[in-house]
Amino acid sequence: MAATETKQAAPTLLAAAQAGDSGAFADLVAPHRQSLHLHCYRMLASVEEAEEALQETLLRAWRSLGGYQERAPLLHWLHRIATTTCLKAITARGRRPATLAEVSHLQPYPDRLLDRVDPADAVELRESVRLAFVAALQLLPATQRAVLILREVLCWSSAEVAEFLDSSVPAVNSALQRARATLRSADPPRQPTLEAYDREIAERFIASWRHLDLDALAALLREDAILRMPPEPVEIVGRDAVCRFFATTPAEGRLDRIHLVATAANGQPALAAYLPDATDTCQGYGIMVLTTTPAGIAEITGFPDQALFEWFGLPQESALLR
Fold first, then answer.
1. Per-position b or e across 54-88, b if 16+ CB within 10 A of its CB
2. Model-level pTM?
């Protein structure tokens, strides 16, 4: 059903869903699934955990739909449920990471999912799912994280957030200021880059990698470039140190054996890595997300997780590319 048709039919769908029609409920919430999934991802920083939280949110919404009285828009009500669900998940994790290298649950968010949003909202939305921003959010206490996202991403008022969290407006504003201060130190403002520039960087990275040209690879990196590899608490700092790692560790330095395929995540250029086995079949190995600036690549975040390939719409294995 088209979005306009769904909006027009919403009152009828709501009445049917509240009467127990599960199909009507599915149609009612369908336009909001992507927004809810993104909200859960910002809160949890894991695309897999976001999916679990989304399913739990929809189940809770279905069970409590009879109590929805339309005092707020449906999406607002759903975001309340999603936020509560995520806060419980954060509490269940236990210890909060103290540094970006300790954000072991961090996963990339495929751009193929972001492409489902309204193009008019694309720029603002992509800024709010940048990998560095989402990772920095994980350093915040759960309540501060919720306050910042609800206030600055979803544009709730302080009064609405205070009512939801059973708090006060001054307490919400104080939490927001503390959250902003933490983010300023962990996630400096990003200098704008262009899509064409990002594509060029990715293409040059792949070419340098394929030809074992470490000098060309180094030229793409900022002097203070950082390499991280969740879930390991690894942080390799500096152009020379990153290049030494690439020269010795992946495939014992035989980068030409690892085939890279351009993709995109978190509104940033990304690369899917395939490692050939003894039968010359490329097995999906992991995803690298590049954080670019006009001065070059500032961060490379590698995710050695074959399960991510399905989220990116990529095959988990393919014939060896020559």
1. bebbbeebbeebeebeeeeebbebbbbbbbbbbbe
2. 0.92
